[in-house]
Amino acid sequence: MKRYLNGSLLLITILLLTGCAGKRELNDLALVTAVGIDKGEEENSFKVTAQIARPADARGQTGAPSGQTGEPILTIVGQGESLFDAIRDLSSFTTRNVFWAHNQVIVINEDLAKEGIAQVIDFFTRNPELRMRTWVVITPEKASTLVSTVTGLELIPGEAVNKLFRYGEISNVAPNTQILDIQSAYLSQSSQPFIARVTLKEVMVSNKKPEKGPTIKQVDLAGAGVFQEDRLVGILKPEETRALMLFTERLKSGVVTTPCKSKPERTISVELRDQMFQVTPHLKGSQISFTAELDAFVMVVEAGCSFSIDNQEQVTELEQAVEKKLKKEIETTVNKVQKEYKTDVFELGKVFHNDYPGYWKQIADDWEEVFPTVDIKVSVNVEVKDSVLLWEETNSGKKENSAN
Amino acid sequence: MTAVEEKDHFFRDLQDNEELMTEILGNSVDLVRRRITFHEHKNVQAICYYTDGLVDVTKIERFISDLLYKGNWLLQHSTLPTGNPLTLLKEHMLSNASFQVIKEVNQAVDGILSGVAVLILDGSAEVFLVQTKGWEKRGIDEPQTEQVVRGPRDGFTESIRTNTALVRRRIRDPQLRIEQMNIGQRSKTDINIAYIEDIVKEGLVEEVKKRLCDIKIDAILESGYIEELIEDAPRSPFTTVQSTERPDKVASSLLEGRVAIFVDNTPFVLVVPSFFWQFLQASDDYYSRYMTGSFFRAIRYLAFVLSLTLTSIYVMLVSFHQEMIPTQLILTIASGREVVPFPVLLEALLMEISFELMREAGLRMPKPVGQAVSIVGSLVIGQAAVQAGIVSPFMVIIVALTGIASFAIPNYAASFSIRLIRFPLLIAAGTLGLLGFSAMFTLLAIHALTLRSFGESYLAPATPFQPKDQKDTIIRFPWWKMQSRPVGVTGDEKRVGDHQFPEPPNTDPYAKEGGKSKEEPKKDGDKSRRKKTRHIIKFKEEDEE
Amino acid sequence: MKVQISNGMFMALIINMIYAKAIGVTQGSMAREVGGDIWISTLIATIQGGMIMFLVIFVIRRMPEGDLIDQSARILGKWFGKLVALITFIFFLAAYGPVMSTFVFHLKDYFLPEAPILLFILAAFLLGSYAIYFGVEVIARMALIGVFSIIALNILLMLGSLSEFDIRELRPTFQMGFLRTVWASRHHNTDWAMATIMAGIILPMVANKETWGKMGFAGMGYGMVFIIMWPILEAGVLSPETTAQYIVSCMQMARSAHIGYFIHRYEMIMVAFFALSILTQIMMSLLCASVAMQKILGLKDYRKVILPTAIILNAFGYWINFDKNRAVDFLEGWWVYISIGVAVGLPFLILVMGFFFKKKLKKEIVAEEAK
Question: Which residues of A touch C171 (CB under 8 A)?
Answer without folding.
Answer: 353-354
